Structure formats: C-alpha cells, structure tokens
Amino acid sequence: MSPKEREQVEENSPAPAKVVHASISKQGEEELERPASSLFWSAVAAGIAIMASVSVSGALHRYLPDAPWRDAVVAFGYPVGFLIVVLGRMQLFTEQTVVAILPFARETSWRNAGRVARLWAIVLGGNLAGTAAVTALAAQGHVQSAPMLDGMVAVSAKLLARDSFDTMMQAIPAGFIMASVAWIRSAHNETGFWVVLVLTLAISLGGFAHVIAGAAEAFLLMWTGQADAGWVITGFLLPALAGNIIGSTGLFAVLAHAQVSQEI
C-alpha cells in the first residue's frame, strides 16, 4: 500500500482497547480531582434531570391505549433523562463507578481508594438529593396535571412488584450496561446520542433496575403515599445500589481493565 493508503487505514481503524482504557482513565483522574462542590451540584442537576425519564414515560402511559404493546412504547420515554444527563456531562453515579475505578485499577493504593470513595459518596448523595427534591415538587407542587401525575405513578408502581433480592439481581445488568456507555462513548464519541438511546432503552425494555432513575420512581411513590421511606431505602435503594456496583465495577470495570492490564 502507498503511504496515503496506510494513513487512510489508520484513520478508519477503531481505537485499540488500551487507547480507550487510557482515555477513560484520564477522564477518571480529572473527575477525581474536581472540587467537591462542583461534583455535588452537577450530581444534583443530574438527579433533577433524570426525572425527565419518569415524566415522558408517564405521558406516554397516559396517552396510549391499554394494549399489550403499550409498555414497549412507554419504554421509549426512559432514555430521555439519560440523554440529558450523559450528553450534558452531568455527574451520574453509575457512569462514575467505571470512570473512577480505572485509575484505581491502574494504581491500587489507599490514597486512590479514598479518592474513589469520596467521588462516589458525593455523586450518589447529590443524585439522590436531586431526585428527592424534584419528585416532591412533582407530587405536591402541581407542576403537571393530575392525569399526568397518575401516569407517572402508574409507571413507577412496577417497582413495588419486586422484592429486594429481585431488585438487586435486576440491577446488575443495568450497572453493566451503564458502565458500557462510558466505554463505548470514549471509543465512538460522535455516536454518543445513539449509544445512550439504545443502551438505556435496553435497560427499560429488559425491566432492569437503575439506582438513580429508579430512585426518582421510588421517591415519587413515597411522596404520593404509595410507599413508605423504609421501603424506599431497604426495598429499593440499597439493593439497586448493590446490584449496580456489582454490574458496573465488579463486572464491567474489572473485565475492561483485565483485557489490557498486560499492555499498559
């Protein structure tokens, strides 16, 4: 091949796994160094924005007829909040589990463990604060019509059909899928919209449990009297959190690092 043809081959070749790994690790280092206030307010914004998933899903549930295919169409409302959060570069807990863990995997130390724990705690706390506030406003603030609120509650009520073990197990695939969003977007950033849309739609269609999007549904059920605080914490949040961490950090991040550990 001519030099020009070889250059074209290089330009059209996908980035090697170790390059993607290095890119995400660099992003993780930057996130670990950000001020706590920046992380927190970005996480609060993400918690508020993720409510769009519940709102659009509730609207679809309200307007569609009661038919066997309704739930499949309602699922298309689920990616909306994730598109706002991920493409808007807000702090979402499940993405940070893989982004922040790769620098720790590259250099395992107590210092890096503490940095990861700090990031996780701030982002998770901000996400939950945002979802708790926006769902209280939705439930009590009359910011949408009563039929719209009924649709949102109906969509959220599916959480009540799961016990805590089911929630944890169904959160593992969701954690894995959300971790893969960060990985794939680093390899193909120009297709970010479709990556987020397709993968978060898969979470909804699969009936999997995402701790932050699910927190919006769980808090909405609590504020409207469909569930109590005990169920929100022990019946949903803790099991979903455990499952998401297992799926994103325990499976995806560890495997993603293992595939290039001998090359870096």
TrEMBL record:
One of its GO terms (cellular component) is plasma membrane. It is a multi-pass membrane protein. It comes from the Bacteria. Residues 1-20 are annotated as: Disordered. GO terms for molecular function: formate transmembrane transporter activity. Keywords: Membrane, Transmembrane, Transmembrane helix. InterPro entries: Aquaporin-like, For/NO2_transpt. Its main location: membrane. The chain crosses the membrane at residues 39-60, 117-139, 167-184, 196-223, 229-256. It holds the Pfam family Form_Nir_trans. It is found in: Membrane. This is Formate/nitrite transporter family protein.
